[in-house]
Amino acid sequence: MKKRILLSFGLLSVFLFLTGCSEIKKPITSESTGFWNEYIVYPLSWVIKEGAHLLGGSYGLSLIVVTILIRLAILPLMIKQTRSSKAMQALQPEMKALREKYSSKDQKTQQKLQQETMALFSKHGVNPMAGCFPLIVQMPILIGFYHAISRTREIAQDSFLWFDLGEKDPYFILPIIAGVTTFIQQKMMMAGQQQNPQMAMMIWMMPIMIMFFAFSFPAALSLYWVVGNIFMIVQTYFIKGPDLRANATGNVGGAKK
User: Fold this and answer.
1) Average confidence (pLDDT) over 115-124
2) 224 vs 198: which has the higher pLDDT
3) I want to staple 84 with a disulfide (CB 3.0 to 4.6 A). Which of 55, 130, 238, 254 is the partner?
4) CA nearest to 202, candidates 38, 5, 42, 7
5) Cα(178)–Cα(217) distance, rounded to whole angstroms?
6) Residue 160 phi/psi, 5° resolution?
7) Nearest-angstrom CA–CA distance, 168 and 203
8) What is the largest CA-CA distance in the chain?
9) Can you give the pLDDT at residue 13?
10) Interacting residues of 173 by C-beta distance below 8 A, sequence separation 6+
11) Is 200 exposed, middle or buried (0-12, 13-18, 19+ CB in 10 A)?
12) HEC profile of 152-166
């Protein structure tokens, strides 16, 4: 959990750095050079524009469709994340026993604890970092969306619902929805798991960070995040249905009374 928190902060820092780079003011075209422009920003810009042409000129609808397509593309990673989360929960009793067995804080004992823990993960085919993979994959896409929107005049100047895609949401509705849906998605992902202060902090920290950044960035970016969160909520409901129902009835981690 500590690694996930540090990774989240690190990726968000990279996001802030890249969104402020000098190229943000240069229009993106088929003539743009560099790996970032040629393989991430321009393809996203092109797909959004082509989607808008097929959807009656609505770049907002195109963004929604492209977001769903991206979520479908990374769906295997998301399913792996959810299954890894459930597997980690199943190993909690054995991990607790190891911590009690190697409770001494000296370096040799702690090294032994790490070795035994990794052996336990290997035995059951669990990757403790699997939950971070979707975040790592999504961050370049999120930054690419920001550049594609900001550097493509047709997208940035288009309006959808009550907001302009290239401007901040004037009523801050989307940032709030982004924060709320992130919170719901986090709660659902951690349903059935034993709660600890670090997990509780993560549940609240991510939505607050997402909402804070969404206040400053183009509304189209918030739209991407909201649609992606709704997709994740539906996906998690179908994958973790039993855990969610047990959590709702208060029977998490034990048998029904």
Assistant:
1) 81
2) 224
3) 130
4) 5
5) 12
6) -145, 130
7) 25
8) 67
9) 53
10) 162
11) exposed
12) CHHHHCCEECCEECC
Task: Please give the single-letter amino acid code of residue 57.
Answer: G
In this structure, the chain runs to a length of 257
Contacts of 185 (CB under 8 A, 6+ apart): 229, 232, 233, 236
> Could you write out the three-class secondary structure of 112-169?
HHHHHHHHHHHHHCCCCCHHHHHHHHHHHHHHHHHHHHHHCHHHHCCEECCEECCCCC
Q: What is the DSSP string of the chain?
A: -HHHHHHHHHHHHHHHHHHTSGGGGSPP-TT--SHHIIIIIHHHHHHHHHHHHHTTT-HHHHHHHHHHHHHHHTHHHHHHHHHHHHHHHHTHHHHHHHHHHT---SHHHHHHHHHHHHHHHHHHT--TTGGGHHHHHHHHHHHHHHHHHHH-HHHHT-EETTEETTS--TT-HHHHHHHHHHHHHHHHHTTTSPP-HHHHHHHHHHHHHHHHHHTTS-HHHHHHHHHHHHHHHHHHHHHSHHHHHHHHTT-TTS---
Rounded Cα gap, residues 108 and 106, in angstroms: 6
Which pTM was predicted? 0.71
Which residue, 212, 254, 233, 205, is CA-closest to 78?
A: 233
Q: How far apart are CA 120 and CA 192, in angstroms?
A: 21
With cut-offs at 50, 70 and 90, classify the pLDDT of residue 150.
confident
Distance (Å) of CA 6 to CA 11, 20, 187, 196? 9, 21, 19, 17
| pLDDT (mean) for 37-47 | 87
Are the beta carbons of 163 and 169 closer than 8 angstroms?
yes
